[in-house]
Each structure stands twice: as C-alpha cells, then as structure tokens.
Amino acid sequence: SPRFRRLALFDDPKPSGSIAKAYSGLSRPQCSVWTQLRTSHIGLNAFLYRFHLAPSPDCSLCLVPETVPHFLLSCPRFRRQR
Question: Which domain of life is it from (predicted)?
C-alpha cells in the first residue's frame, strides 16, 4: 500500500546488526522473551500494574517494585537460580 511504502522509508523492519547478532541462533520464543526483558514489557507486577492487571507493582516477597532488574539481579526468590 502507499502508506506502507511511506512508513518503510522511516522504519526499517530488520533489526540492527548488534541486535540481529545477539538474537542469531535463538528460537522465536527465546527472542520474544529477550525483547520483553530488554523493553520491560513482561509479565512482572511493575508492568502489569500499569494496566490494572496486578493489585500492586511490588514484588510479593520483597515489597519493592517488581522490575526486570529486581527480578534478574536482587530478588531472593530467585537466588538459587542465579
């Protein structure tokens, strides 16, 4: 469509080289999880609360915002997996 061609001039649908390299060899579901983690658009309370899908933005164990950095780096619930 004409609209698509105009938008394609501004928005290259292919990922940049560094992203493409980081995602090479990963399955589509793995790429999806990585993208969700990088953008913080993932099913953690801090994100879900913005859409009234969680009662609180906080981690149920730590009572601090359940964000990607908290989930990956500091939540005691996942200490053993780290």
Answer: Eukaryota
Q: Is 44 exposed, middle or buried (0-12, 13-18, 19+ CB in 10 A)?
A: buried
Please name the residues in contact with 19: beta carbons below 8 A apart, sequence gap of 6 or more. Answer: none
- Which residue has tokens 């500091």? 74
Q: What's the whole-model pTM score?
A: 0.74
User: What gap in Å lies between CA 73 and CA 32, rounded to an integer?
Assistant: 20
User: How far is 58 from 81, CA to CA, in rounded Å?
Assistant: 21
What the block records as the tokens of 10 is: 């501004």
- Using DSSP's 3-state secondary structure scheme, residue 1 falls into coil
